[in-house]
């Protein structure tokens, strides 16, 4: 499909970027990057303005932006807005129960951030220290992130849906001495026992100096003497003065763990100046944000989307950002549209998986709510199929609202490929055009760039300010993962097609990473969770097409000698993976098999397993190198029975 849809004139009247402006700015951004990025840095307040702008190399790998600049991102997101918008709502929060709301004006946000910053200081946190945040979607999550940024501490937010095991690994990896959590979080009417999970993560594991507990659900929790403190009690005596720490542009801002194709999750490290410019700039242009508008990104702050487009991007622009604790189908599947109506949301940004799930419920839950406040719609996290795109366009947006399909990654800090509402036609299913400063390249297996309309591995030829700088504690892994497949290029891990009009169509991951409901999952992680079960000998995990989730988790499992598959064991393995990683990693299909297809040298032939899981038996390719070619037929037989 190559349908073109023009942005409706009313929605983009007075937009920040016309087609001509896009062309001119894009050209300048790639032809004179230093001039372009020096100018864009002026979006921020600097204690010392940078004179060095871009200084990077992909071979050897060394990436620096604005390296002699000094700034503080909390100052830019909070303090600097006080004179003009102290009384404007910065963050509006709605809890799991409809209509339960709280808000913070910029002035109130300032007071809360200062208080939290001083509490962290009294717990001994200093510039450069890592602080783990394991929180529900409550205002304090944003406050804690900003408080860390204020004092120069490096936050590591761990999504509240991750298991104690996963949390422990992340606390250990960055050696944080402080954990900020809550008694619990609410999702769909149920309490998520966050504090109990922290207790389990720390039990016999990493030693920390303090666990600060925010009172939220008022569920029962155990408090460990000497280690655990109620945040409100410590905060009561906190001083209301805390200057912003001057940070070098290249000082670390945060670590965020993400899954790769091998081994344990990587700590993606972002630094201060470049990330700040990138999120501020992309927010302004991609969402065409106008003063006073209500912006709602439905992502959790445990993901990069929440970092960049719930907290930092909107607040750096002095916007009003809506935070939602709950889920799209509680108390029923009209919740999003109910909130859009009540809070007069102008810009709405969500994931294709949510759109597909809601589309299945029909039009009525959408149509019964007034959505006339919406001006721009956005999606992120996975490819959106044209059918879901058209539903979003037609039913949610009434064919009135431009849709931005934004491609980016944890590693990129912010949006990289997208249309801009006022500048581009849309094509359902295509992310669109490169953002300013972005030079995508489609490389073939030999590393040759393919020009014009072509398909290949999506790489970046040049750096951009929001790029991650290293894998925390393992720079070699950073180099290996992103810069070794194609020397001198950043390799995204995605496949992509470019059409005659220069639009990019993301085709999905080409590595062993799968995308389940917009959550990134390393197949190797699920495999190691499975084989940690005492009855499992071996496993291979692949993705397969799933109507709602995009991809589902398909697990081939072989048992140790003498064990027989059973429904009970299947359930147990499912539970086991949930416990090891978290509910988002729950296997969709478990396929017991006596053996996995291997080459004579013992390498698992994942290509074949992927095809079988996808129900594509016609194109299995060469199976002659298999040690046991007969196995393929029995695997197909097993797949058909599912
Ligand atoms: C992977 C990155 C970026 C924040 C959320 C996910 C996939 C992301 C799109 C899109 C097609 C997309 C890619 C990418 N992806 N956005 N608009 N169209 N695919 O961040 O967890 O780091 O995952 O998500 O495969 O590599 P992440």
From TrEMBL:
Name of the protein: Acetyl-coenzyme A synthetase
Species for this entry: Allosphingosinicella humi
Pfam families for the chain: ACAS_N, AMP-binding, AMP-binding_C
Record-listed CoA binding positions: 187-190, 305, 329, 517, 578
Cofactor(s) essential for the protein: Mg(2+)
Residue runs in coiled coils: none
UniProt superkingdom: Bacteria
Recorded catalytic activity of this chain's protein: acetate + ATP + CoA = acetyl-CoA + AMP + diphosphate
Upper classification of the organism: Bacteria, Pseudomonadati, Pseudomonadota, Alphaproteobacteria, Sphingomonadales
């Amino acid at each position: 499909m190559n349908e073109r849809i023009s942005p409706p004139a009313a929605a983009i009247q007075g937009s920040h970027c016309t087609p001509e402006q896009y062309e001119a700015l894009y050209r300048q951004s790639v032809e004179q990057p230093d001039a372009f990025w020096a100018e864009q840095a002026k979006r921020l307040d600097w204690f010392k303005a940078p004179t060095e702008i871009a200084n990077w190399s992909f071979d050897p790998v060394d990436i620096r932006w604005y390296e002699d600049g000094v700034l503080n991102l909390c100052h830019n997101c909070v303090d600097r807005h006080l004179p003009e918008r102290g009384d404007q709502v910065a963050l509006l929060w709605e809890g799991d129960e409809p209509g339960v709301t709280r808000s913070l004006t910029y002035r109130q946000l300032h007071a809360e951030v200062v208080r939290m910053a001083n509490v962290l200081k009294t717990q001994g946190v200093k510039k450069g220290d890592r602080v783990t945040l394991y929180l529900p979607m409550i205002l304090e999550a944003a406050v804690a992130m900003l408080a860390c940024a204020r004092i120069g501490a490096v936050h590591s937010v761990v999504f509240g849906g991750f298991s104690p095991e996963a949390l422990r690994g992340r606390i250990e990896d960055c050696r944080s001495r402080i954990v900020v959590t809550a008694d619990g979080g609410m999702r769909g009417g149920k309490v998520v026992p966050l504090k109990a999970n922290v207790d389990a993560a720390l039990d016999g594991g990493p030693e920390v100096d303090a666990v600060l507990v925010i009172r939220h659900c008022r569920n029962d929790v155990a408090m460990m003497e000497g280690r655990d403190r109620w945040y409100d009690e410590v905060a009561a005596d906190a001083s209301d003065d805390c200057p912003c720490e001057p940070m070098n542009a290249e000082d670390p801002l945060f670590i965020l763990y993400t899954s790769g194709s091998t081994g344990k999750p990587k700590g993606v490290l972002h630094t201060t100046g470049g990330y700040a410019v990138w999120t501020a700039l992309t927010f302004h242009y991609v969402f065409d944000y106008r003063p006073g508008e209500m912006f709602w990104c439905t992502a959790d702050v445990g993901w990069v989307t929440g970092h960049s487009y719930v907290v930092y991007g909107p607040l750096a622009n002095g916007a009003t950002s809506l935070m939602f604790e709950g889920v799209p189908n509680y108390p029923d599947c009209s919740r999003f549209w109910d909130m859009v109506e009540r809070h007069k949301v102008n810009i709405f940004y969500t994931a294709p998986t949510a759109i597909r799930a809601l589309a299945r419920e029909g039009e009525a839950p959408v149509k019964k709510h007034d959505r006339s406040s919406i001006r721009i719609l956005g999606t992120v996290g996975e490819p959106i199929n044209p059918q879901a795109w058209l539903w979003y366009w037609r039913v949610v947006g009434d064919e009135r609202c431009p849709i931005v399909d934004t491609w980016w990654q944890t590693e990129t800090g912010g949006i990289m490929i997208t249309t801009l509402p006022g500048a581009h036609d849309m094509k359902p299913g295509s992310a669109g055009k490169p953002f300013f400063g972005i030079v995508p390249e489609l490389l073939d297996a030999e590393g040759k760039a393919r020009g014009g309309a072509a398909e290949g591995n999506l790489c970046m030829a040049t750096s951009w300010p929001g790029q991650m700088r290293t894998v925390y504690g393992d720079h070699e892994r950073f180099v290996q993962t992103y810069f070794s497949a194609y020397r001198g290029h950043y390799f995204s891990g995605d496949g992509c097609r470019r059409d005659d009009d220069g639009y990019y169509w993301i085709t999905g991951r080409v590595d062993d990473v799968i995308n389940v409901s917009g959550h990134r999952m390393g197949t190797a992680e699920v495999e190691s969770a499975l084989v940690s079960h005492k009855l499992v000998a071996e496993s291979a995990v692949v993705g397969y097409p799933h109507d709602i989730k995009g991809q589902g988790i398909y697990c081939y499992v072989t048992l140790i000698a003498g064990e027989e598959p059973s429904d009970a064991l299947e359930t147990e393995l499912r539970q086991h993976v949930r416990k090891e990683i978290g509910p988002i990693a729950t296997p969709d299909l478990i396929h017991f098999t006596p053996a996995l297809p291997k080459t004579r040298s013992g390498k698992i032939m994942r290509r074949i397993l992927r095809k079988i899981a996808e129900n594509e038996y016609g194109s299995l390719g060469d199976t002659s190198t298999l040690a046991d070619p007969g196995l393929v037929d029995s695997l197909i037989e097993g797949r058909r029975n599912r």
